[in-house]
Write a structure and sequence with these properties.
Chains A, B: Keywords: Amino-acid biosynthesis, Aminotransferase, Pyridoxal phosphate, Serine biosynthesis, Transferase. The structure is a homodimer. By secondary structure, chain A is of the alpha/beta class. Chain A has helices spanning 18-29, 46-63, 77-96, 114-127, 251-256, 268-273, 283-298, 301-325, 352-362, 387-403; strands at residues 7-8, 69-74, 106-111, 132-138, 166-170, 172-173, 178-179, 203-206, 224-228, 239-244, 329-331, 342-347, 365-366, 377-380.
Chain lengths: 404, 404
């Protein structure tokens, strides 16, 4: 049995900093000098509450979350939030428009990849008969082959509804490797300028695979931002929410007006009123994520990670581009829409992909196989992946190109 | 900062075996020789799948779960299941009775403590306008003071409905320290004999705080058994389900017939069809729970734990009883209904409870304070608490009695 750690380029669950793992090893047996391990301690103990408060504060400070927004912690991942955003924001809309018909109750979905597609499908399941789910834009229409999620469509194509109950987008599509640009001048940036700013727009963003890799543009304009922890900041089992206060509504009052009732575990109001401790939270995933975010702060916070992640992505795309020129690699995503976090490309030629993966594994690099639905290679470059590790992969890719 | 482990009698999250914590320390950095830590590895890797399969098998074998029942893993705790059982079993009922009126769609709740009361309240929220929630029995009626959950009512008081969509009970009330007896002759046992046995009864049991402390009587007669992991078998963040196949229904077909749509993360069908891997599961809590259940098997399985837990409870109640004779302690639960897992009692006299807790803490015993809603002392005797640890507490209680 090997005792060496490998480099894990997996898309999630994904690599965590070794220093955090080593600290968590101690906490497992004795958390903060309590004589009780972190997996065993009461979530109502003062020690855990202090840890949770620091965790929240470290997110708030680094992402610059204003007091208009609550930071909440829950379970169930992105899939849980596919449902929760629909139910909570339909309840909000019902309270604002008690007599709105299903035709007047519109959910706007921006579909740029597998995850936003799934989110829109869940909205259709839950809202059937109560609301109308609209696809604002479907990026496949603008793809090279008409079938792939390989781009962020141009701003002119975003046809938002007049007064929707929510506007949904996925900032980074983990499977397809497509991400909104954070440069507002880029045609691949999110078209915030098309949204009304004189009202509280119900803008929802899935930030699962890009949370805390760089600042969030126009964070304060969002109604809900959510992220599973298992990419940049921790183990699976924790979901982080940033919710604007007007979206924390009395879902029971809305139900009395005809909205679908919201299960306890999906209600933002229950979470907010209890400080995320209505029921036992995922203490251990919270602990490890809290250690990661504390370490991020010590390293200089988001500016440090943004710069590092920019360099990592630029270097990697440069070698993919070089391989493309030589006819060895092929990029799957259109220029300008490439994800910083999940770089996807193909290795051309019979058996070449297998050879690429085996060669990488032989050098201690794992997790490079693309998602089963799209194939190819996927390199995930989350915060815990160091520049040295990316350099090692690039050195391997360079040799691979030389031998191809 | 102390480095000594204390004895943790907390009600949950609660003590875990030190040998498991030490093994998990290694797995955090390198799981099963993969060179990747367990919190970082893909839930779709063959190594994790093998671990999950073994975990499931170890539960199946030890609890003797028949092939009529699936074992599923999810997130969200008991609170998530308060909602899920209602939605899934209402969908099942709708498919069986497509034209049933809300009056003909009945949910039967057995209320014997704080948790079953909460579960019934959630049913009322979700089923409003669609179904009728009935209290089969409320144990407060049979309590010493008419207000406390201090007993399991006599069998003659259980008034089940004719053809309910579900029958719900909580096997062990963690807060109140009330538990069904597993001796079928006892008046405090669950009155299975009152249920029809010629049909698939939709019997639902919350086993959160007594899961795998002893065998489950008439397991095969249950529709759904669920448990949060954070008592006997692992960290918070994992919920274990045992679901009879006829309760895994096409919730979308039911919704087309008028049932409330079921959010993805609460649908038993989604979980079952994906082998509990529809979305990323709580890998780390699954891992630690899997280690605990593997260790249980090595120790001799449930017969070993049942005997040990019986002895622990008997010893503890004996000293509480002795203290009651001396006017120092007072039991809160009626004879025959006392929980094996959570023993609750009062320490009588001004400031006596505080003195009791402080004295215990001085000797390295923590987590003995009763739930804030009922007060007093609560001693949780989950599987990871050893007989030696109980003996140490009893020695302290004996000295406390001598000094009182």
């Amino acid at each position: 049995m090997s005792t060496e750690r490998v480099i894990n380029f997996g898309a999630g669950p994904s690599a965590l900093p070794l220093s955090v793992l080593e600290e968590a090893q101690k906490g497992l047996v004795n958390f903060d000098g309590t004589g009780i391990g972190i997996a065993e301690i009461s979530h109502r103990s003062k020690e855990f509450q202090a840890f949770l408060d620091e965790f929240e504060q470290n997110i708030r400070t680094q992402l610059d979350v204003p007091p208009t927004h609550r930071i909440l912690f829950t379970q169930g991942g992105g899939t849980g939030q596919f449902s929760a955003v629909v139910l909570n924001l339909l309840a909000r809309h019902r309270l604002l428009h008690p007599t709105a018909t299903p035709e007047e109750t519109v959910l706007d979905y921006v579909v740029t990849g597998s995850w936003s597609k799934k989110a829109a499908e869940e909205a259709r399941r839950l809202a059937a008969g109560h609301a109308t789910v609209r696809t604002v834009v479907d990026s496949r229409v603008y793809s090279k082959d008409g079938k792939a999620y390989d781009n962020i469509p141009p701003h002119a194509e975003f046809a938002f509804s007049e007064d929707p109950a929510l506007i949904y987008y996925c900032e980074n599509e983990t499977v397809d490797g497509v991400e909104f640009s954070h440069d507002p001048q880029s045609p691949a940036s999110f078209p915030f300028h098309l949204l009304k700013r004189d009202t509280l727009v119900p803008l929802v963003a899935d930030y699962s695979s890009s949370f805390m890799c760089r600042p969030i543009p126009r964070l304060a304009d969002h109604a809900v931002i959510y992220a599973g922890a298992q990419k940049n900041i921790g183990p699976a089992g924790l979901t982080i929410l940033i919710v604007r206060q007007d979206c924390i509504v009395d879902v029971d009052a809305a139900a009395r007006l005809g909205a679908t009732p919201v299960p306890l575990s999906l209600s933002y109001k229950i979470l907010a009123d209890s400080g995320s401790l209505y029921n036992t939270p995922a203490v251990l995933p919270i602990y490890m994520s809290g250690l990661v975010v504390r370490r991020m702060k010590e390293n200089g916070g988001l500016p440090y990670y943004e710069e590092m992640n920019r360099r990592k992505a630029q270097k990697l795309y440069a070698i993919v581009h070089e391989g493309e020129q030589k006819g060895v690699f092929r990029r799957k995503v259109q220029q300008g829409s490439e994800s910083w976090m999940n770089a996807v490309f193909e290795v051309l030629g019979e058996g070449a992909e297998k050879k690429f993966l085996e060669g990488a594994e032989k050098e201690g690099m794992k997790g490079l196989k693309g998602h089963r639905s799209v194939g190819g290679i996927r390199v995930s470059l989350y915060n815990a992946i160091t520049e040295e590790e990316v350099d090692k992969l690039i050195a391997y890719m360079t040799r691979f190109l030389g031998e191809s």
